[in-house]
Amino acid sequence: MMTIEERLALDKYEVDEESHIALDQAACAQCLHKYCLTVCPAKVYTQSEGQDAISVSHVACLECGTCIVACQGGGLTWNYPTGSMGVVYRYA
Length: 92
Ligand code: SF4
Ligand code: SF4
Fold this sequence. Notes:
Elements: H1 4-8, E1 12-14, E2 21-23, H2 25-30, H3 36-39, E3 45-46, E4 55-56, H4 66-70, E5 76-78, E6 86-88
Antiparallel strand pairs: 1-6, 2-5, 3-4
One iron/sulfur cluster binds next to helix 4.
């Protein structure tokens, strides 16, 4: 069986330089569970050790919508990438 990393490597992306994901870092700082850090299959959201801010790597987004459902802290603004930009599925 393929690993998630192997499956993700089969996806193709048309990179939208402008991020379609925005975080309200103040709201995120108050967010108790920060589910975005664990539910995203593409690991778009990361938080470095000792850092309060959450980083967003929007180019890796699969547009699955999981983070939108999981976010309960009100810090996430998510829209589809511009036009035909974003992920182009192949086999993953
Ligand atoms: S839509 Fe899916 S892939 Fe994109 S950031 Fe949210 S959970 Fe991750
Ligand atoms: S789950 Fe939402 S509010 Fe909480 S840290 Fe993630 S984006 Fe911010």
